[in-house]
């Protein structure tokens, strides 16, 4: 796994941290899941 620096607004990070706590996951897991969902949607559109 690579390590990357992202610039994300403080408001979005706060929201993601709350979700992570609620789901008993790490912030990294939440961001990875969100990115995977995004990529899956993009792939689905490309197939259609």
How is the topology of this model organized?
Layout: H1 10-22, H2 27-47
Topology as a string of helices (H) and strands (E): HH
Shape summary? globular
Helices and strands: which structural class?
A: mainly alpha
- Termini separation comes to 30 Å
* Average of per-residue pLDDT values: 94
As a whole number of angstroms, the C-alpha radius of gyration is: 13 Å
State the low-pLDDT regions, or none.
none
Let me know the largest β-sheet.
Answer: none
Can you count the beta strands?
Answer: 0
Query: So how many helices?
Result: 2
Tally of discrete structural domains: 1
How much of the sequence lies in strands comes to under 5%
Oligomer designation? single chain
In helices, the fraction of residues equals: over 70%
Structure description:
71% of the residues lie in helices and 0% in strands. Helix 1 packs across helix 2 (27-47). The protein is an all-alpha fold and 48 residues long. It starts with 9 loop residues before the first helix and ends with a helix. The mean pLDDT is 94.
What are its keywords?
2 helices, 48 residues
Brief description of this entry?
The protein is mainly alpha-helical.
């Amino acid at each position: 796994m690579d390590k990357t620096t992202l610039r994300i607004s403080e408001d979005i990070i706060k929201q993601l941290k709350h979700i992570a706590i609620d789901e008993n996951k790490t912030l990294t897991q939440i961001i990875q899941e969100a990115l995977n969902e995004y990529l899956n949607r993009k792939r689905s559109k490309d197939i259609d």
